[in-house]
Write a structure and sequence with these properties.
The structure is a homodimer. The first copy, chain A, is of the alpha/beta class and about 350 residues long. Chain A has helices at about 10-20, 25-30, 40-50, 55-65, 80-90, 110-120, 135-145, 165-180, 200-215, 230-240, 255-270, 295-315; strands spanning about 70-75, 100-105, 125-130, 145-150, 160-165, 185-190, 220-225, 250, 275, 290-295, 320-325, 325-330. The first copy, chain A, is elongated. In chain A, about 50% of the residues are buried. At the A-B interface, helix 4, helix 5, strand 2, helix 6 and helix 11 of A face helix 4, helix 5, strand 2, helix 6 and helix 11 of B. Chain A binds a DNA duplex (16 and 16 nucleotides) through helix 2 and helix 4.
Chain lengths: ~350, ~350
DNA sequence: GTGAAAGCGCTAACAG
DNA sequence: CTGTTAGCGCTTTCAC
């Protein structure tokens, strides 16, 4: 035990010295590069474990890779996003890459700052989940780093896309409500920035309006806008119910909002059919039994990661995958006798 | 518009050239260092915006700061952890620091790999949320980077600690159940690694056992162990109920597990009082009305961040703060007629 | 008040 | 198969 308590992190230089080889040699075994004898590899790895050596990402970054995949998320609080991360993490298992998450700025959920932060850190690949950032900027990002757009329906030849079939999902939800006899159906969605076309919520809104019109209930269409979160949705729906807005059902843009609507209905003591989107875990809880549109969050997150890995492997053409959105009917949406 | 489409990221060199100054000068205005004339500052900032310059974190890291705070999380899927992140993000607002999250390895929730990944990336500060990592390693990490231990009750003079008052919380939960007439109370908790002393769940378990013994129901103590997540908890409780384990109430180690227990009870059609821990948003939903122990996740996350910022500012002595755990009684725990 | 220059730890030619 | 070497972009003395 002649060793003093390891002070500074060991560098590649230290490893080389201990192993009695050159730095280049160490770097080679590190990168599994061509041209290293077994004997050398062994001595080097021995030295590395002895010194508890770990390469510094920053130094590597100066020359290229960071072995980091970044994901920008609008709202950690929404369970659906957690599922995406779960799938992504699992897909990265066994690869040398590490996932880091950058939450969108507090409150705004805009995502631009988070994306910039990830870019500043030179991630090797980027997953942007429904960023509220204009497409030219996104295109430009995608020219410098492999990126997959998650959720938004943009078309681009620069980045890959993973999305759900929001149009089909929203249509299924509306048909279900109509089939149950509802005509006065409101749509509960987030404030405008999410309502424009490429956004999932924009598509859901569009389909809602189209469905109402097609069914001849265009005049009964009501779009309720809310901030993010169960609590905000609760407030909005409570206010509407108090105001006596004549509505028998609500199609919520995602499950958290749907839970808020359910809470408001329960508190007001009025029957209100609620349908959500995403199918988060709690939606299937018997106490809630929320009818909703299922999206395979884990699978989608995993696919996004795999697309990035393919890019690293050399794929040049953009990829695009749309995941099925499947209606899951549960009890709570049993139509209240209107 | 003589500019060609900006290709590579601008460097400090480019800025210097455009502004007609030296690199050192640019670096100084960047860091707000002493000794820059207003005129120069202006020209430099102009050049920076013109070139859309952003300093590279990796290059900075080679010389010191990364302006990054890392947080290791065991399980994104648990809403309580999302709240911690929310508080942390908000507390970072307006500072030059960026939060990045490293999820614990898929499945194991051990956290060691995630911590290593963060360390490899030279975060300026580290928040470790209940890591399943031995204390000597943690101590050693804390010597090289400011760290706050979140959740675990370790005592150290090297790192700061933010924790909830798990002992008081668990006691309150048990007293509530006893007060409602329950004697056969089971404890639903995670598998052993979380049960040891410094862990929050370890403390809750200990208090559960102590409370049962003190109340003279030591023989009725039942510890049910489950994997993480609502679904796993559901399975375990369902199995126990099927097996006819004589129990009238369950104290769950956290709310997600409690939801699983509630689901099992609902499905089995048996009355079962369930009490949770954390007070996640859904706990207060009228359909669930879960009695639970409230922990102020946002405030705790924000405090952890502030402790780190204080360290950056120079604080040397370790800090430690324990947050109150407050019982919130809701309807579902109304005692079933035993 | 400003600039020149060294060097952080690593990778990737290139020589031997 | 192994070693030498030139930077990557930034910060930071230290001269001017």
């Amino acid at each position: 035990m002649t060793d003093a308590p390891a002070r500074r992190h060991a560098t590649i230089e230290d490893v080389a010295r201990v192993a009695g080889v050159s730095r280049a040699a160490v770097s080679k075994v590190l990168r599994n590069a061509y041209g290293v004898s077994d004997a050398m590899r062994e001595r080097v790895t021995a030295a590395m474990t002895e010194l508890n050596y770990r390469p510094r990402i920053a130094a590597r970054a100066m020359r290229g890779r960071t072995y980091t995949i970044g994901i920008e998320l609008p709202d950690l609080t929404n369970h659906f996003f957690a599922r995406i991360v779960k799938g992504a993490t699992e897909a990265l298992d066994g690869t040398p890459y590490q996932l880091i998450i950058a939450p969108a700025e507090a409150g705004s959920r805009e995502g631009w700052r988070a994306l910039e932060a990830l870019l500043d850190r030179q991630v090797d690949g980027l997953i942007a989940v429904s960023p509220r950032v204009d497409d030219t900027r996104l295109e430009s990002i995608a020219t410098s780093v492999p990126m997959v757009m998650f959720g938004r329906h943009d078309i681009s030849d620069r980045y890959d896309v993973v999305a759900g079939d929001d149009a089909a999902g929203a249509r299924a939800a509306m048909q279900h409500l109509f089939g149950a006899g509802h005509t006065r159906v409101a749509h509960l969605t987030l404030h405008e920035s999410d309502e424009t076309e490429p956004f999932p919520h924009g598509v859901r809104l569009r389909e809602y309006l189209a469905a109402m019109a097609a069914a001849g209930h265009g005049d009964d269409a009501r779009v309720w806008r809310t901030d993010e979160g169960e609590a905000a949705a609760f407030e909005v729906v409570r206010r509407e119910l108090r105001a006596g807005t004549p509505v028998t059902a609500v199609f919520a843009a995602h499950d958290e909002l749907a839970f808020g609507a359910l809470r408001a209905a329960a508190q007001a003591g009025v029957p209100l059919a609620v349908i959500g989107y995403d199918d988060v875990t709690m939606a299937s809880h018997p106490a809630l039994g929320l009818t909703t549109v299922h999206q395979p969050g884990e699978a989608m997150g995993a696919r996004a990661v795999r697309m990035l890995l393919e890019r690293f492997e050399g794929r040049a053409e953009p990829a695009r995958e749309t995941f099925e959105a499947r209606l899951v009917v549960r009890t709570s949406t049993a139509p209240p006798r209107v």
